[in-house]
Amino acid sequence: MRNINVRVTVTLLVVGVVSGLLSGLFGIGGGTVIVPALVLVGLTQRQAAATSLAAIVPTSISGVVSYATAGDVDWIAALLLACGMVAGSQIGSWLLSRLPEVFLRWFYAAFLVFVIVSQLVFTPQRDSAIHLHVVTGILLVALGVVIGILSGLLGIGGGAVAVPSLSLLFGASDLIARGTSLLAMFPSAIAGTAANWRRGLVYLKHGLIIGVCAAVTAPLGTMLAGMITPRMGANLFVAYLAVLFVRSVWTALKVTPGTNISKVHDR
Where is coiled-coil annotated (predicted)? Predict the structure, then answer.
């Protein structure tokens, strides 16, 4: 495992605490904050995405336990999602090792725009649930494949897509969508991490520091999620993603040939 200095360690600890809170609050793995933070401490976008996925493993375990305790997990829907996500994460991991850095950064920015729009146009109900039948099951697996590809490619757990999709397309309440999302991302995060490890992309010590800290604070985020309204939760998520979007565009411009920012960055 790579050695890290004190400044980087402190940064990783803070990122772990924050990503854990966000994981519990929004039902995400925390990759949307972990990836830019790892890039900030010196990892490439490719390494950051792979390491973030490793950190999501302990984070998702802690978060799902908190939601399951309150009965806010649809176990069958999570299993169907997970089947698709495991397959999709292998495709995403394969793409991660082959796509150029500049593409990955701009794709990440575009992904954030999609999630922001989805959160603004739809407000889930607190008391609704997923009604499973054959067609729903097939669609859940298909959604899982798409999420898995994004997970392996961007280093996210997939919750930023799974949570709004489960509410918008399948009728889940905001809390059930978050709990189910966290459970579904666990096996795909393991599968994607194993694939990234074989390709030498994972900074395991970085991932462990973030993941352990996040696992400790995720239950607090879960408690906060139950205290606020669905609309307020969506608005907070949008505000958080908007900040990440500005940051991701800035970092993408720095590695895009021909831009003024990239020229300054190269000097």
Answer: none
